[in-house]
Amino acid sequence: MSYSTKLTENLNRQDPNSRPPPLVLLRWLASFALKRGSPLHWRQRLALAFIRAQRAIVPAGVRRRNLRRELTGQGIIAYCAKKGLVVKTVQLEASSTTYKAGLDVPAPTLHFIAAPGASDQSGATTLLYFHGGGYVNPMRAGGHVPFALQCAEACGAREVVFLEYALAPEYPYPAQLVQAVAAFRYLLEGDSHLSVDDIVLAGDSAGGNLVGSLLAHLASPSPYAAPVDLAGHTLKAAVFVCPWTMMHVNQASFATNDAYDYLNRPQALQFKAEWNPAEGEVWANLCDAPAASAVWDAAFGRAGKPGVVSKALVTSGSAEVLVDSCNLFAKNHLRGELVVADSGTDLSVLDGKDFVSVECNGEVHVQPALDAFMGYKDGVMMRAIARFLKTV
């Protein structure tokens, strides 16, 4: 099966009545053909051109219905069955999300998948992964699962744990933060009995926001979930993949990259409206909430004081609409070196850097998930993430 056929069937298999009309396919092929000068590999360009064409033509409501026909857990289980992977699903107790009276948050579900090459002799390192989708869409297992498994392999993790969180608008902010805290606490206190030092956090887009939300809660507890006592320990690492860090959309990259990325300003505003974050709270608005500087100083460790995580990476694509906000978060709060990378960059430059950001030339929003779906393993962002994780 060709890559284009595989992509078309996967993105439209849930609703045979909404397969792209000829106009979509023509626009897709034209977009692919006209970007020959792009620094992206042809597989990357093919996936991006299709998504942009589909989103330009297929009504948003139809896309939403299709995406929600297969929820996160269903997608993970189906993917694992197809690939012969063993998945263990754990439904947390209802009491795990009942800290704040009157806050309606369902107990989350966790999905455990053994990492490639893991054995009984593997260490305890575990990757806790939060998927993107604007807090509105479920995880796309065909891209997210293989991407997360590559991350787990890079850092020597024995397993990946996916959080299946409740979706907005049915469950707006702060439901996902409450569930993330419950998931983290379960890894420490449940059957896994992990140490804080065993855990690597990673997430993309809204999932990157949730990585930050959880770290911020660990450093400065929110009123929505119980504080977590780390007992002086720090998480092994955190990876923010193209994170959603700012709630407004007036950054210049929303205009300059509108012609390249598949995410755009109207979509970002729609996600925000449905998630309904409290913009003055750092657990939602990571970059420019009033308390952001103080909270991130505590989270990342400043003035000789330990933080809550030992190492952190922020990635972005130079052609994505969120690149400005990603870079601003990294500059103001991560305060690590910015590495601008392309296919020829020697990524050993990341070695020895505990806090670092990487802007990947020509790549778009959450490029590694698109690459993983297409079976392409040489994307700049994916290689940068893998290089960083090999050092944790």
TrEMBL record:
PANTHER family: AB HYDROLASE SUPERFAMILY PROTEIN C4A8.06C (PTHR48081), ALPHA_BETA HYDROLASE FOLD-3 DOMAIN-CONTAINING PROTEIN (PTHR48081:SF18). It comes from Parascedosporium putredinis. This is Alpha/beta hydrolase fold-3 domain-containing protein. One of its GO terms (molecular function) is hydrolase activity. InterPro entries: AB_hydrolase_3, AB_hydrolase_fold, GDXG_lipolytic_enzyme, Lipase_GDXG_put_SER_AS. It comes from the Eukaryota. It holds the Pfam family Abhydrolase_3. Residues 127-330 form the Alpha/beta hydrolase fold-3 domain. The active site is at S205.
